[in-house]
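Researcher: We're teaching a course module on how sequence relates to structure. For the next exercise, students receive a sequence and then see the predicted structure as tokens, so they can try to spot secondary structure elements on their own. Here is the exercise chain.
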Amino acid sequence: MLWVIYVTSAYLYPKRKPSGIRISQPPGADISMATAQHPVAPKIRAGVQPLRAGEGNSFIWRKLHSLLGIIPIGAFFVEHLLSNFEALKGPAAYGAQVKFLNSLPLVRVLEWTFIFLPLLYHGLYGVYIWFRGKSNVVYYPWAGNWMYVAQRWTGLVALVYIIQHVLRQRFLGADLPNNPGMAFAKVQHELANPFMLAFYVIAMIAVCWHFAYGIWLFAAKWGITPGETARRRFGWVCLAGGVLLCVMGLASIWAFIEPKYQNAPEDVPVSLRTAPASSGNVARPLELA
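Model: And here is the predicted structure for the students to work with:
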């Protein structure tokens, strides 16, 4: 028994051998023994926190944030791209579209209720979610984490773009609601700056990505696409829709800088539009309301 204790203590607590001094040990004392040791548990870093019910008021605010991103912000974004697509027809057609939108009843109430205030909440609360979230793409380079990072950065680019776009086109310079004929020239002057042109192109791509992936997230969070197969298929639909919207947006930007409409007049008459006549190839004027 004493021999076993001595061998064990020699294995667990080996003695230092001073230089020049040899310590005699019993035979077999230096033989190492295989022991089963528990491996050290790796330090796991927190991943992206999912949205769960029962997290207090934040669940309601996040649901509202998700809903507003689709209705009314998403609906307005699609309408805005369709309106800007009129620029391909020239300054008069674009100015007529601006006049039509500003002639809607209660347009200022609609503008603030369904555009400005929802955009303000969606943008600011989105930044708040970003600062509270964690995306460990370095430690967990999964597709979900990369999507999370891309959605946050594209949202930030979209927020900066929308703020400057609304300020410059809606509140600064020419008063477009009362002078819709100046709309084409105002945008054209802004895009004449190569830095602004590059910013518009980057922002258009970012906004379309943010909206397309936002639709996919909305469908997943609201239970519209249950299951991996449904989400994968709907992901391709969102991708195709985002590419289509991006092409429309970039084509609208091209309309303001293409040689066909260079040096457009500062103001064009938009009180009349031309529509095909009922017979023949003669165009007749159509008065706008």
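Model: If you want an answer key for the exercise: The chain has one domain: 57-269. DSSP finds nine helices and two strands in the chain.
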